[in-house]
Q: What sequence folds into this?
């Protein structure tokens, strides 16, 4: 079965071809980051227009990369939500119209399910069940993943997402949007012992997170520095922020591992690209004898491959494909709405 995947929930347009037997055949991606950087954040209307410009060339690129023709495609999977409504509508309209014209069915996919399953794209994938730490620009959740569609929420952020905290703190330090990756680069040059920032909810006893206080602590630090904000200060502040957020993410992940008794941790979402997070988790995994899996770096952030994969796995798991022609997206869509939980 050959599934075409379409991702357009935010500021990346992704198209991919996933084959149930051969795996990922190709994927094509366009990031709008440079376009939005000028405005300090994603401008939804510009995002939608750019998705429109990109989908067809990216489809051609993906087909050529896989050596396939549209006729070979058995189903079209696309991100139905959550995300920006206008951006989602572009991918939805494109995927539904394409499927309708080809006489093929569609498979609407939950964006976070794509992230959760993305480690399965790797050459050395985890097996079910595993704990997933989902850390993106919009979400921070710890989940128990027992199988396709079998997700149990263990904990989540009560306010800002981890990526959002990275981006907002980066902005406070004068870095352009989206600052997460830039902040982490800057942090590498910082002194870890210079400033101590709070570790919100570290001892809350549950698996929930809160990051808005941490961002406020960065703001306070910047204000206290006044006119003396220079490159060295920025690097030290970035390091202090990163030390704090990584410690909270790692400690809560360890708690989830202990609580579930599982031996595999999957880290998904854009913040999963963070080097300090990876190094600390790898270290803990060696000491505590569990394994950590990361999607390939290119599949950590938004992409079409994870949507094609999720669509294909859904179809294989028996979720019925939809007749093409629907035109509905779900900008707000809790992952738990599609999860059967861990019934076993
Ligand atoms: O998963 P993703 O591409 O988009 C969402 O679905 O939200 O994640 C994007 C987020 C952004 O907040 C970005 O700043 C953050 O991931 N990010 C990072 C790094 N690379 C991307 N945060 C920390 N360290 C990084 N190296
Ligand atoms: Zn995402």
A:
């Amino acid at each position: 079965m050959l599934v075409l995947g379409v991702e357009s929930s935010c500021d990346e347009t992704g198209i991919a071809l996933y084959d149930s037997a051969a795996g990922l055949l190709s994927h094509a991606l366009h990031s709008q980051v440079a376009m939005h950087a000028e405005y300090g954040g994603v401008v939804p209307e510009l995002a939608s227009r750019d998705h429109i410009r990109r989908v067809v060339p990216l489809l051609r690129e993906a087909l050529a990369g896989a050596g396939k023709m549209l006729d070979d495609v058995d189903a079209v999977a696309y991100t139905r939500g959550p995300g920006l409504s206008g951006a989602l509508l572009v991918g939805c309209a494109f995927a539904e119209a394409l499927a309708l014209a080809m006489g093929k069915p569609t498979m609407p996919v939950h964006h976070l399910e794509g992230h959760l399953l993305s480690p399965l794209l790797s050459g050395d994938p985890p097996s079910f069940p595993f704990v997933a730490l989902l850390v993106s620009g919009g979400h921070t959740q710890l989940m128990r993943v027992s199988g396709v569609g079998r997700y149990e929420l263990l904990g989540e952020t009560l306010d800002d997402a981890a990526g959002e905290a990275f981006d907002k703190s980066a902005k406070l330090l004068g870095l352009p949007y989206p600052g997460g990756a830039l902040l982490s680069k800057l942090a590498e040059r910082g002194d870890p012992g210079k400033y101590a920032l709070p570790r919100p909810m570290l001892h809350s006893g549950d698996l929930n997170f809160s990051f808005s206080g941490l961002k406020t602590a960065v703001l306070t630090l910047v204000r206290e520095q006044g006119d003396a904000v220079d490159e060295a200060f920025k690097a030290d502040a970035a390091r202090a922020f990163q030390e704090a957020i990584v410690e909270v993410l790692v400690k809560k992940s360890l708690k989830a591992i202990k609580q579930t008794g599982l031996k595999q941790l999957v880290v998904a979402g854009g913040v999963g690209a963070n080097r300090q997070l990876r190094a600390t988790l790898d270290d803990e995994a060696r000491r505590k004898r569990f394994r950590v899996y990361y999607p390939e770096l290119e599949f950590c952030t938004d992409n079409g491959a994870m949507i094609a994969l999720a669509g294909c796995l859904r179809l294989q798991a028996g979720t019925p494909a939809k007749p093409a022609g629907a035109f509905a997206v779900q900008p707000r869509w809790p992952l738990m709405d599609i999860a059967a939980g861990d019934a076993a």
Summary: Residues 160 and 212 are 6 Å apart (CA to CA).
